[in-house]
Amino acid sequence: MSAAQDSSPSTSEQPFSAESYFATQPPPPTLDADVRNVRSFVSQQVAVGRKVVLVTSGGTTVPLELNVVRFLDNFSAGTRGATSAEYFLRAGYAVIFMHRQHSLQPFSRHYSHSTNPFLDFLELEDAPQEQTDERTVIDHARPIITVHPSDPEHLRSVLSAYKAVQKAGTLHSVTFVTVNEYLWLLRAVSKELHLLGRNAMYYLAAAVSDFFLPREKMSEHKIQSGKGSLILEMDQVPKTLKPMVDEWTPEGFIVSFKLETDTTLLVPKARASLERYGHQVVIGNELHRRKFEVVFVSRSSSSSGIVGYDKPGFEETWLRIDEKASAGGKEIEEDIINELVTRHLSWIKSVNT
Ligand code: 9Z3
Questions:
Q1: Does residue 81 lie within any of the structural domains?
Q2: Alpha helices (runs of H) in the chain, residue ranges in sequence order
Q3: Gap between the Cα atoms of 347 and 54, Å rounded
Q4: Ligand 1 centroid to residue 1 C-alpha, Å
Q5: Helix (H, G, I), strand (E, B), or coil: what is residue 207?
Q6: What is the number of domains present in the chain?
Q7: For position 254, which CATH number holds?
């Protein structure tokens, strides 16, 4: 019987460290190919001296069976990540967009199945006798197809930004589905970006599961319902920020997100995270207000930043946009990325001071 169906306590006494996790959980089969592609993308950016940001986006799944029928999922449509990637590109960064398969992506997010569905732009019209319009499908036997965007200017600007990015080759996508794939990719991509030193930024907006089922505890086949209720005991996902800061990419500018449903927890939890892991910025967001306000928490410039040497001080900066402005198309990610670009630049400059 597998532990997934077993109601007895977990046999693992120790929580997984990052080291024991990677020593026991298998890498995804596409990892080597993904890393080769990332390496080639990074070397192109290094050659032209461009800064690179790794944007993680979307939720991770936790499969419950090896032949997976059921899984736990994490909330996130990938809006924050996809929107932010566009603003980073606009700011001149190259972007590695590491996202949950089928979650929102930069540019196409404006025309996803839920926002401006593609088919709503198309009209069928009777074919004219003479057909010269380049946009039409010329088939006199059938009605022609014409494109009618509700807001042509918007479509034009999204399309031209998308084409410019394609031409410049500054966007590279990598996909994950499970939390295991996410963790292996995060480690591998961070190590590749290590080459860029302070010119690399990490923008960790993916909603990552805190719990998972180790492979050795998973049922091979679909969990059967014959035994009544299902009791699952899951292990804690190892904290990856610590090895990121200490080993994988010590010079990188690392920004993590903290999601809470109770606003009063945002600042204390963000501070605790900075104190524990020693990275640069935690952006706190409350579930329902995340499109209108976020809080940047970082160590205050007066503190040494050396944990244990003095009690680090913290500073908070709230960014807010008006709900009316948001309804009119203003996106808080524009302000988040502006603020981060400024902070990243001073982080790069501070190496010589
Ligand atoms: C976030 O907090 C993101 O901003 C959202 C974006 C997931 C809220 P959407 O894709 O949502 O725009 O719909 N991401 C980080 C979530 C997370 O897993 N944080 C961990 C935590 O809060 C720590 S790193 O404990």
A1: yes
A2: 18-24, 31-47, 79-90, 152-168, 179-193, 241-243, 266-277, 323-327, 332-349
A3: 17
A4: 35
A5: strand
A6: 1
A7: 3.40.50.10300
In whole angstroms, give the CA distance from residue 168 to residue 94: 9
Which residues have a Cβ under 8 Å from the Cβ of 283 and sit 6 or more positions away? 255, 256, 257, 258, 270, 294, 295, 296, 297, 336
Q: Rounded to the nearest whole angstrom, what is the distance from the C-alpha of residue 74 to the centroid of ligand 1?
A: 9
Judged by DSSP in three states, 199 sits in helix
Ligand 1 centroid–CA 240 distance in Å is 15
CA distance 12 to 235: 8
CB of 256 within 6 A of ligand 1: the answer is: yes
ipTM of predicted complex: 0.96
For residue 146, tell me if it sits in a domain. Answer: no
In the block, which residue shows the tokens 């190919």?
33
Length of the chain: 353
Residue 109, ligand 1, Cβ within 6 A: no
Choose one of 55, 204, 259, 331 to mutate for the ligand 1 pocket test, by most ligand atoms within 8 angstroms of C-beta. Answer: 259
User: Are 214 and 179 contacting, i.e. CB atoms less than 8 angstroms apart?
Assistant: no
Closest C-alpha among 105, 99, 94 to residue 169: 94
Residue-level pLDDT, tens digit, the chain, 353 residues: 344 444 333 445 689 999 999 999 999 999 999 999 999 999 999 999 999 999 999 999 999 999 999 999 998 999 999 999 999 999 999 999 999 999 999 999 999 988 888 888 888 888 765 555 566 555 556 788 898 888 899 999 999 999 999 999 999 999 999 999 999 999 999 999 999 999 999 999 999 999 999 999 999 999 998 888 999 999 999 999 999 999 999 999 999 999 999 999 999 999 999 999 999 999 999 999 999 999 999 999 765 445 444 456 999 999 999 999 999 999 999 999 999 999 999 999 998 55
Identify any residues that bridge with 235 across adjacent strands, giving them in sequence order.
Answer: 212
For the residues of 229-298, what is the DSSP string, one character each? S-----EEPPP-HHHIIIII-TTSEEEEEEEESSGGGHHHHHHHHHHHH--SEEEEEEGGGTTTEEEEEE
298 in any annotated domain? yes
Could you tell me if residue 246 is inside a domain? yes
Where in the sequence is the domain holding 210, given as residue range(s)? Answer: 18-106+152-352
